[in-house]
Predict the structure.
Amino acid sequence: MLRMLKVVEITWIVMAVISAFEVVNLWNQPGDKKWYFLGFMVFAIFMFFFRRRYRLRYEKRKKEQDTHNNTN
């Protein structure tokens, strides 16, 4: 489970980096496509930190449960 949560985090960062490259490539071209990629980049960065915080909480809770179960 923890490994999958880390993979999801890395996926969000990769998607943010790809979107950033697209924003740079489309910046001087007319149209709204660059703004969609910029919005998605911001969303992907937000999701990375959200999922990371969720994973760290999950790890902490699991560690506390394991130490609690080992003391009994």
About this structure: The chain is about 90% helix and 0% strand.
